[in-house]
Amino acid sequence: MCGRELIVAEDELESEILEWARKYAQEHRWILNTDQRKLDIVIRGLARNQRKFGERYCPCRLRSGDPEKDRDIICPCIFHADEIAQDGSCHCQLYFR
């Protein structure tokens, strides 16, 4: 894959993740971060983790390297609903109430 094709592939993955996140937020009556810069950072982090590790690990959480333990931090992580209910957003600030 040449450089241009790689950039397009990365953009496609980020677009796919963004669309997935929008649908997930809508299903739960939440919104995505309205700060486009912060939203882009989280989406890029999710895409990077999917490319590098094969899963959309939350970019705001540290992986242990143990796939069994790290399952809890695949976006949406097991913590997100409680964080949104308690704090108004998840730790990554992807989803907001």
Count of structural domains = 1
Which consecutive residue ranges, at least 5 long each, have pLDDT under 50? Answer: none
Main sheet characteristics: 2 strands, antiparallel
Provide the CATH architecture: Alpha-Beta Complex
Strand order of the largest sheet: 1-2
CATH superfamily, called what?
A: Ferredoxin thioredoxin reductase catalytic beta subunit
> What fraction of residues sit in β-strands?
under 5%
Query: Overall 3D geometry?
Result: globular
What would you call the structural class? mainly alpha
Please trace the helix and strand order, writing H or E for each element.
HEHHHE
Average of pLDDT: 92
Determine the number of helices (DSSP H or I, runs of at least 4 residues).
4
Helix share, percent: 55-70%
Please tally the β strands and state the result: 2
Radius of gyration, in Å, reads: 14 Å
What is the top-level CATH class? Answer: Alpha Beta
Query: Might you state the CATH topology name?
Result: Ferredoxin Thioredoxin Reductase
Report, as a whole number of angstroms, the end-to-end distance.
40 Å
Main attributes of the structure:
mainly alpha, 2 strands, Ferredoxin Thioredoxin Reductase, 4% strand, 97 residues, globular
Concise overview:
This protein has four helices and two strands. The chain has 97 residues and is mainly alpha-helical. It has one domain: Alpha-Beta Complex (Ferredoxin Thioredoxin Reductase), CATH 3.90.460.
